[in-house]
Amino acid sequence: MYISFIIPAFNEEQLIEQCLRSVTDAVAANQSYGYAHEIIVVDNNSTDATAHLAKRAGARVVFEPINHIARARTAGADAAKGEWLIFMDADCLMNAGLVGDMFELIKQGRHVGAGSTVYMPDQPWWAEVVLKLWTLLSVQLGWAAGALMVCNAVAFKEVGGFDLTLYAAEEIEWSQKLKQYGRERKLKFTILNNHPLETSSRKTRLYSGWEITRQFFYLVLSPLGSLRNKKKLPMWYDGRR
Question: Does residue 164 sit within a domain?
Fold first, then answer.
């Protein structure tokens, strides 16, 4: 079995090396599965040293000139050689337990894909409440968090990949398509929760309460209008790091 880890990255020079190291270490801890793997970093038109640092760390780097998360993930999938794709954000740290859970799921052959619960260290109380609410929805509804998405490569292509009209939340639409694909073939889609993925809480540090509230209301009052308009998603696309 060959696994492709796909990591989109825009100006992630501060975090990309530790992210890649976490993946390498977690895979090494699960070498008993005998799976070969590659790590692809999609440089999403960075203006810093992201691509250089990723290459130095041993990743294969591909370039996506349009700053758009769904396009970056798609570019990685197009370049991938793996039979299974694992999409992971650059501000996350992988752990050996989660890689073991993913590899076991792949080995069993009863799933089309999966997501994972996440945790964010050192975040304020209100962000912890929001994360707990998201975790409940994710597990109950089978919505993968964008921080980690796992799927069979053939299924990814057959469902049409990610919706490129969306600038955020494409992981929810993708989850729905994969679940339907799986039901038709008696395959499962699950949210792994034994070993949550660590993801950065930097948005709660970089954005004020007012900025976060304004972003929330944009999404609530006009969800599709906001998700299809890059200018209404500054927390995803203003480049603040």
Answer: yes
pLDDT digits (tens, 9 = 90+) for 131-170: 999 999 999 999 999 999 999 999 999 999 999 999 999 9
Report CA torsion sign: 121, 70, 240, 229.
negative
Please check whether residue 232 lies inside any domain of the structure. no
Residue at 89 is within a domain: yes
Tell me which H or E stretch contains 190.
strand 188-199
Domain range for residue 158?
2-201
Rounded to whole angstroms, the Cα distance separating 164 from 48 reads: 25
Backbone angles phi, psi at 47, to 5 degrees: -110, 5
Q: What is the pTM of this model?
A: 0.96
* Torsion over CA: 57, 119, 89, 138 (sign): positive
Residues 73-102: tens digit of each pLDDT: 999 999 999 999 999 999 999 999 999 999
Any domain includes 225: no
- Give the separation between CA 99 and CA 26, rounded to whole angstroms: 6
The domain total for the chain is 1
| CATH number of the domain that residue 90 is part of | 3.90.550.10
Give the DSSP letter string of 123-182: --HHHHHHHHHHHHHHHHHTPPPTTEEEEEHHHHHHTTSS-TT-SS-HHHHHHHHHHHHH
Among 118, 113, 112, 57, which Cα is nearest to 89's? 118
Q: How open is the CA angle 138-172-83, to the nearest 5 degrees? A: 100
